[in-house]
Amino acid sequence: RADYRAWFAYHPRVDLETNMEKAPTYAWIASSDRNDTVRAAISVLAEGIGAMFGETPWVSALATDPDGETGKRSVGPNAADGANGADSGILVGTFAANERLREIFGVEAAELGREGFAIRTKEGVTAIGAHTPVGALYGAFHLLRLLATGADPSGHEVFERPANKLRMINQWDNIDGSIERGYAGPSIFYRDDAIDFEPARIRDYARLLASVGLNAIAINNVNVHRLESRFVTEDYLPRLAELAAIFRVYGIKLLLSVNFAAPIEVGGLPTADPLDEAVQQWWHERAAAIYEAIPDFCGFLVKADSENRPGPFTYGRGHAEGANMLADALGRHGGLVVWRCFVYNCKQDWRDRKTDRARAAYDHFMPLDGAFRDNVVLQIKNGPMDFQAREPVSPLLGAMERTNQVVEFQITQEYTGQQRHLCYLVPQWKTVLDFETHALGGAAPVKRIADGSVHGRTLGGFAAVSNIGADPNWTGHPLAQANLYGYGRLAWNPELSAEAIAEEWALQTFGANRRVADAVVGMLMESPDIYESYTAPLGVGWMVNPNHHYGPNVDGYEYDKWGTYHFADRDGVGVDRTVRSGTGYAGQYRGSNANMYESLADCPDELLLFFHHVPYGHRLKSGRTVIQHIYDTHFDGAQRAGELAQRWASLEGLVAADVYDEALARFREQAEHAKEWRDRINTYFYRKSGVPDEQGRTIY
Length: 700
Ligand code: BDP
Fold this sequence. Notes:
By secondary structure, this protein is an alpha/beta fold.
């Protein structure tokens, strides 16, 4: 299937006949490195170039043969001025192993850091140089990306290094083979209560992740139950080590989600108190065993004291004590603790209007600033609630000055259409990353908080919940692949625009047909606004069915303990989160952000109901009343959802038939489902408010 290959589709270059000589620009690939990662770089280059240019480059034996002669000669340069002198080719690898790469890049190489790379065309050689094998691999993928998006093959000059140190993906996969919030089939890692995988599939996933620069993977669900709690034992470590070995080739390190109560549940101790010596000792032993099996193990991911998961609170201890205890166990091996800030009271009472789930992360963690070990990094969800289509940016991001932090996104579309609706999430993530936090009073957008530069932290980055499963096309909706691709690209370089990423993805996936690329980019770029238009209005969120979270249910969570309310009544709607009269959440922001959200006049329309409870007749900045805005956007959103299906249908014959059919079926479902959303939301607000639609459209 075409879509299994995802963005490695490698269509023949359309300019081949017109612009290029018969002699291929890339006749050979060579390297003096002999390691699996550089070998992987060579093999992706050979495959991609072969497919795009119609002729597979000759690969030097030294580069492929693990037992080949050691370092006597540098094959690339010799090839270039030796037997293959007439042809040009690619020299790829590390500076340490390839003298010619050192000559080509000279002192400029110093700037590249551990994972960066440079590409330069010189005297017929396309040189891809890096300090590490994985840097060379990233360079190889980058060259392929350039070629697949139409770059001139005859000359390259690129210097790249990742903005973020940690570029993580979180699998929410369970050992029974299910995936929490997975919408693309069962797990590729587990089946029937066992670690069970096809190495080739894992390798292909690793390739996808590495091709966009991701470098760490938490391999099991953050909700760690039963058998998964035992992953830290010898029962499971050998299999996990096999997984780690596959990912290692692609520069990706393994993390495990751990159960804070494992000392009790697995170790048979009477307590999991982080200050108890036997507990500490138990984790030290587990860490030693893990590093024995997986020497480059990245660390633990921990969800503690949240949504009924165990944590230090049981013992009267705090998050810092819990995280530091694990950090001490891992630290001597160079490991990290990634501690999640998604912590709130899920047993709230809607009658108590003072509690506010949105406040929770900040209230819990802000007082702990500076209390965490250097090898602890806090993982903070992008918004204060839970991955809604529209939320403000978490006020915790940037607030802590002496604590490592990563921003957490959700690629899997739990609240954004579950990969049955099209919702390109990169624009949302860009909004978050560009948000000015006013930390330290200066220019401090979230992207500079995450990369650590604002507060001078060396550890930081991105995490995101994966959207893949065992479906042949990885993501269910074929176009949902763009979200995985886009996440990785942003983690590498948050300056890329959502549109540029969409275009890169479309050209690589569907080939250089401008008509297809333009149509797909247009659909992707409009999709988040379309989705938002027919779902919960003006930032209020949560009007979904409880538990599975698909489809409209306006009061589904309204009287629920999880703290997710809209407070609609006959007079108005929205959550008063002001300091003046509400929950005080707006006061968690810094400087002008706090004033902006506090003020009814200044609060941006799209977040109005997140911060304020207003009458239905309240006028938005757009000039429309809130109630008319709800009606208009829902009619409009449902209509545009219907048009998506038609726009896709216009590409029939231009994209692979199976991909076309798969996506069309989903666009049709989205169109129908958007009408259901429209009708439920509009009817609800019409009945609550009694205000008719100005345009007299039918509301049931
Ligand atoms: C919510 C999901 C839930 C996760 C939780 C989390 O509904 O399944 O366990 O987030 O992030 O979005 O821990």
